[in-house]
Backbone:
């Protein structure tokens, strides 16, 4: 029995889930960690990606188009969603922006739930077709894991390039001091909007993979508590630290796993998970508010390395 | 005869019933250093914020290079050659000194720049880094490029803010109390920096309370009191002006 739990299938499942959540966490970090925009409605973009792709590809409840169309559609719709929520809410800052994005997440959930002719509402959409890539159906977990890993890596590389570009540097400057950034001629709103759209787009892609992997979505999948878990990953890993957000996602996926093996009833496991996340968040805030890998240690490491190099040459 | 770069015409700002700036007019000539002085609450910073576009005047006009710019947004003013610092130091605390400088400089700032044209960005980046190091050298901050800005002393942060403002390629440099809270050695550094910049063709407008500093480097001094402009002249004239002595300098 235990072998079944710890078998290859289970490990592959973990890898796929980690891949999906790393995409979400890294994209959210672009907003929270690098641009300083607290987003409590990231699950909205995740949900838009999932629902769009499912409605495009599902043979019974959707249009039955190929997966690639669903993937592109999901990413594009999430990006558009980011743009439209950005227009009214980017005038807001800090806590106010957090509330506005929270509202957005809840609105999206309400839409998924109430637009029944399209989404089947609370019934959810079952039997979502497996993802296909170049005509090859990813029926096995191995193939799905491979594709998710590749997609995650591509998203990470793109984010890495963006963060380490002059654009990314300006995002950081905006986080540090918006008025100073304005004084250097930066069109702050345009930068924030771009960051939001990129972040939303990647979350949408993650949503597409999630839907086609789990093969069932309903509105409860995209509730506020999911957004909180996303934020948890970023804070746990370290805001504004690239590898921090990756590590945060891995830890948040792996940490509750042992609960499965302790023999609790399935209902209790869910609740325990929530308690565990809350405990992590509180502990981190008290002991290590900068996260597991803080932005500063990275910079300081660079500095000491350079110093060592200097003294070495001297 | 140097031409006029910036013209302030009957500028007025009311905050509710309070008149912070009362119909002030003065000219800033090209390649000059102009000091704006006056007691606390005289409306100097309000004037500054109107010139840089951070607050909108109730009445009056601002003309720059013969173009009216009264309603321009701050960023748009930067594009036409403005650059400013703040009374409270506003640097990017959790970024390195070099990063602080590079943010101010031009490079390809589309998000995918490093994906599609990494070489171009890199070349520009290297050019900017060299330029930044040169500027940092002028205020004796060389060798500290990779330090986080928050680890600098207050005076050094102030210097960094000034050179960062210079790094934005500007024609008109506006400094709000560049010498406040700065020790004597650094004061000398700032003086030298401003004079060098003037030689390079910049026009500088600054607010300051340190009279020695003002008298040393300003070509023209504008004195404000209770929102009104009470005198304009060379430092020598201002020192002798009765109204200025009464309102501000004392005996």
Residues:
């Amino acid at each position: 029995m235990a072998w079944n739990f710890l078998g290859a299938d289970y490990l592959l499942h973990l890898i796929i889930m980690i891949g999906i959540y790393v995409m979400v966490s890294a994209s959210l970090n672009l907003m929270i960690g690098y641009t300083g925009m607290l987003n409590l409605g990231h699950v909205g973009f995740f949900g838009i990606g999932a629902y769009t792709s499912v409605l495009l590809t599902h043979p019974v409840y959707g249009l039955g188009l190929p997966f690639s169309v669903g993937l592109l559609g999901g990413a594009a719709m999430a990006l558009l969603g980011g743009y439209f929520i950005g227009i009214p809410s980017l005038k807001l800052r800090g806590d106010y922006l957090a509330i506005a994005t929270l509202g957005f997440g809840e609105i999206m959930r309400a839409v998924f739930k109430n637009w029944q002719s399209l989404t089947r509402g609370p019934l959810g959409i079952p039997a979502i077709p497996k993802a296909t890539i170049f005509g090859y159906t990813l029926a096995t977990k191995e193939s799905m894991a491979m594709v998710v890993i590749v997609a995650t890596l591509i998203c990470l590389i793109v984010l890495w390039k963006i963060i380490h570009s002059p654009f990314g540097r300006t995002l950081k400057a905006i986080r540090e001091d918006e008025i100073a950034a304005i004084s250097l001629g930066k069109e702050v709103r345009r930068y924030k909007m771009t960051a939001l759209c990129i972040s939303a787009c990647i979350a949408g892609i993650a949503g597409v993979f999630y839907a086609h992997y789990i093969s069932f979505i309903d509105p409860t999948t995209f509730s506020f508590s999911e957004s909180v878990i996303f934020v948890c990953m970023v804070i746990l890993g370290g805001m504004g630290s690239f590898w921090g957000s990756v590590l945060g996602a891995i830890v948040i996926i792996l940490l509750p796993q042992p609960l499965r093996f302790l023999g609790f009833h399935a209902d209790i496991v869910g609740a325990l998970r929530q308690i565990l996340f809350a405990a992590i968040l509180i502990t981190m805030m008290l002991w290590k508010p900068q996260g597991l890998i803080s932005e500063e240690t990275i910079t300081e490491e660079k500095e000491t390395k350079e110093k060592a190099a200097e003294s070495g040459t001297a | 005869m140097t031409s006029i770069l910036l013209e302030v015409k009957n500028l007025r700002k009311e905050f509710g019933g309070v008149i912070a700036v009362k119909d002030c007019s003065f000219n800033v000539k090209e390649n000059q250093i102009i000091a704006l002085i006056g007691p606390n609450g005289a409306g100097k910073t309000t004037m500054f914020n109107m010139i840089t576009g951070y607050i909108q005047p109730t009445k009056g006009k601002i003309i720059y290079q013969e173009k009216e710019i009264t309603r321009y947004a701050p960023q748009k003013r930067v594009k036409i050659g403005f650059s400013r610092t703040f009374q409270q130091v506003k640097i990017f605390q959790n970024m390195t000194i070099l990063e602080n400088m590079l943010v101010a400089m031009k490079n390809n700032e589309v998000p995918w720049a490093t994906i599609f044209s990494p070489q171009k960005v890199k070349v520009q980046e290297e050019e900017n880094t060299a330029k930044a190091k040169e500027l940092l050298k002028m205020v004796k901050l060389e060798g500290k490029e990779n330090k986080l800005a928050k680890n600098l002393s207050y005076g050094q942060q102030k210097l960094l803010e000034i050179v960062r403002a210079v790094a934005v390629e500007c024609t008109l440099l506006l400094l709000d109390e560049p010498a406040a809270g700065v020790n004597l050695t650094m004061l000398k550094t700032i003086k030298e920096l401003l004079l060098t910049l003037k030689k390079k063709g910049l026009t500088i407008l600054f607010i300051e309370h340190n009279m020695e500093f003002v008298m040393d480097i300003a070509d023209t001094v504008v004195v404000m009191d209770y929102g009104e402009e009470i005198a304009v002249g060379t430092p020598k004239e201002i020192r002798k002006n009765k109204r200025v002595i009464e309102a501000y300098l004392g005996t």
Notes: Chain B has ten helices and ten strands. The CA atoms of residues 195 and 217 of chain B lie 7 Å apart. Strands of chain B lie at 4-15, 18-29, 33-37, 59-64, 67-68, 82-84, 172-176, 203-207, 220-225, 228-233. Chain B touches chain A at residues 52, 54, 74-75, 78-79, 83-86, 90-96, 99-100, 102-104, 107-115, 121, 125, 146-148, 164-165, 168 (CB under 8 Å).
